[in-house]
Amino acid sequence: MPQLVASNSKEEKGITSSRSSKSPTPVLSSKEISPPSCEEMKAFYNSLAAISSKPAILALIDPYSDNYIPKPLNEGLPIVLTDLYKQEYLQLNYSELLVKSSELVINVSQDE
User: Fold this and answer.
1) Rounded to whole angstroms, how far apart are CA atoms 9 and 13?
2) Which class for 74: exposed (0-12), middle (13-18), buried (19 or more C-beta within 10 A)?
3) What is the DSSP letter of 19?
4) Which of 8, 23, 36, 73 could form a disulfide with 40 if both were Cys (CB 3.0 to 4.6 A apart)?
5) Chain CA centroid to CA 62, Å
6) Cα–Cα distance between 7 and 30 in angstroms, integer?
7) Of 24 and 102, which is predicted with more confidence?
């Protein structure tokens, strides 16, 4: 009865490679990379803002984030809730915010 022998090498398994076994191994050099300066970051963000698509990262960066606030597509839609934002509301406490919110009137018709 023949014995089965496990083969470990690629040549024994019939696997060939188009690469020469004598090709040099690439050497990766490691060097320190300094973080980008503020001017470089601004230039990078400006170049992203100049392209035709809207890169999502700019939604997090002032002043580009203003372009990512949704706007109603036409007059038949209700106001966008982000239009209710006011910087002064950040200084109010909870009870003052409740008073301000009770003063707001938001009308939404059945068509909207």
Assistant:
1) 6
2) exposed
3) S
4) 36
5) 14
6) 38
7) 102
